[in-house]
Amino acid sequence: MLKKKVEELCNRQVEREGYSSILYLAMASWAEQNGMAGFASWLYAQADEEKAHMLKFVRYINERGGRADIPAFSKPPVDFKGIVEMFDEVLKHEQFISASINEIVETTLAEKDFATNNFLQWFVAEQVEEESSAQAIVDKLKLGGKNIMYQMDRDIMKLRD
Ligand code: FEO
């Protein structure tokens, strides 16, 4: 049985992973509208991954005898300044998600909930990867300016392999 505090934080994470999914969906749609099909594909795929992350939390909470709440999500932005700013935002958002996961990990230790701690280790590893791939895209975009943007739009899906 999940302790109340851990259940609340896991439910908070359901909302955060779900919001990540619609945030990336909004970014994908913007990229598509602005002729960047490669970046759009990457972001659509990322939105699917975030939905899967949300589901992992929903199912884990229920499996442990808790109650997973499906929340309403805030509306994500419609407009973005540009692709560099957008990926800067992706990176910042992933850092926020990592901090959020770490907070739950900390709570599981305080509450001696080692099963949830074990469940969260997958997310700890996943966040290392997500931050590093967002950072790599930001670095490339900042280094290369406009030329690299078109090249990256063509090649970005290879970064997911
Ligand atoms: Fe599920 Fe990118 O955090």
Describe, in plain words, how this protein is organized in 3D.
The chain contains four helices and no strands. The protein is elongated, with a radius of gyration of 17 Å. With 161 residues, the protein is mostly helical. The protein has a single domain, classed as Ferritin, core subunit, four-helix bundle (Ferritin, Up-down Bundle). The structure holds MU-OXO-diiron (FEO).
Give the SSE layout.
Blueprint (H helix, E strand, L loop, with lengths): L3 H30 L3 H27 L19 H28 L3 H42 L6
Helix pairs in contact: 1-2, 1-3, 2-4, 3-4
The structure holds MU-OXO-diiron.
CATH architectural grouping: Up-down Bundle
| CATH superfamily grouping | Ferritin, core subunit, four-helix bundle
User: What order do the helices and strands follow?
Assistant: HHHH
Mean pLDDT, to the nearest integer, reads: 95
Briefly, what CATH class? Mainly Alpha
The general outline is: elongated
| Total domain count | 1
* Secondary structure tally: strands: 0
Give the helix proportion (percent range). Answer: over 70%
Measured by DSSP, the beta-strand proportion falls in under 5%
| Cα Rg | 17 Å
Oligomer: single chain
Return the CATH topology. Answer: Ferritin
Tally of helical runs: 4
Hetero ligands: MU-OXO-diiron
Protein traits:
161 residues; mainly alpha; Ferritin; 4 helices; binds MU-OXO-diiron
Compact description:
The protein is built from 4 helices and no strands. The chain is mainly α and 161 residues long.
